[in-house]
Amino acid sequence: xxxxxxxxxxxxxxxxxxxxxxxxxxxxxxxxxxxxxxxxxxxxxxxxxxxxxxxxxxxxxxxxxxxxxxxxxxxxxxxxxxxxxxxxxxxxxxxxxxxxxxxxxxxxxxxxxxxxxxxxxxxxxxxxxxxxxxxxxxxxxxxxxxxxxxxxxxxxxxxxxxxxxxxxxxxxxxxxxxxxxxxxxxxxxxxxxxxxxxxxxxxxxxxxxxxxxxxxxxxxxxxx
Length: 224
Ligand code: ADP
Ligand code: ADP
Description:
This protein is of the alpha/beta class and about 220 residues long. It contains nine helices and eight strands.
């Protein structure tokens, strides 16, 4: 069986994290979400967190030289030998090039770049209603995916909070940054033959079924 080295692309709020959680369950892959890693660093008050917080609060990207090492160290780690799911990285062309270099050094290659697409208006609705649990960053939506107990996580009981950068002013900035800095990756991965597109406006289960079917096809093709 081939290793699965997957990246998830798409605007903030398209449902990357929601789909990643399902893929990780399906294929038992390690999951590296740069946003989660950076938020944990902010909570810990580490040097990485201090640098990252400024940029995150402003809705801007953390500089490439800060984030690349953080990800590459994990991709290179012992639990990623059979593959990984990267969510939120790469977000710029230099990040994609750094990943490419790191993966080829290991004698491996990316399996696919999974693009989850959703228009700006939908993304704004989703980010405005997103709530995450304060303990493990489990994700909910006040309207589309409410918890059983209002305000508390179904999985670990911790209080739900709104991310600072899910406030309206920052959402607008993040979308602008996505269109300017991250969308060039769509062409980059298309040219490399790695891009697979998914309609993120469908129900989470439908998006998931579609991604799973695509991965099954990729595996079949690689076995031929
Ligand atoms: P979303 O899930 O809404 O797409 P993330 O949780 O992935 O957002 O990211 C939150 C913030 O963390 C970003 O707005 C950015 O400031 C920072 N960040 C996350 N990943 C990266 C990255 N690959 N490069 C630079 N900054 C990043
Ligand atoms: P991303 O990781 O791309 O920023 P998330 O997975 O955190 O996106 O999803 C953003 C918000 O939208 C969350 O509140 C989540 O519950 C909700 N959501 C995710 N997928 C869907 C979907 N297919 N339909 C409706 N809401 C969704």
